[in-house]
Amino acid sequence: MCGFIGQISYSSINPDKLINANSHLVCRGPDSTQVFNNKINKTNALLIFNRLKIIDLSDNANQPMQSINGESIIVFNGEIYNHHELRMLLEKKNVKFRTNNSDSEVLLNGLEFFGLDFIQKLRGQFSLCFINKKINKAYLVSDRLSQKPMYYSFINDSVIFSSNLLSIVDSLNTSTLSEANINEYLQYGIVSAPNTIFENIYKLEPAQILEIDLSSTKMKNKLSKYWNPDDYVDSKIFDESEFFEHFESAIKIRQQADVPIANFLSGGIDSSSIIKNIYDRGDEINSFSVVFDELKYNEQKWSRMVSNKYQTNHLEVNASAILDIGTIQTALNCLDEPYADPSVIPSYIVSNKIANSYKVAISGDGGDELLGGYTRLQSMIKPRSYLENLISKGYSLYPSFLGTGNFFLSKSQNLNLAYSSYFKDEKFMKLLKISTNKIIDKIDLDLSYEPFKSLLIQDYKYYLPQMMMYKVDRTSMANSLEVRSPFVDHLLIQYVLSRGLHSDMLNMNKGVLKNYLLNDFSTNFINRKKQGFVFDLEHWVFRNINYIEDTISEGNLVSSFSKNTLKLLSINKSRINANRIWKLYVLEKYLSRI
Question: Which of 247, 290, 546, 574 makes the best surface tag, with the fewest CB within 10 Å?
Answer without folding.
Answer: 546
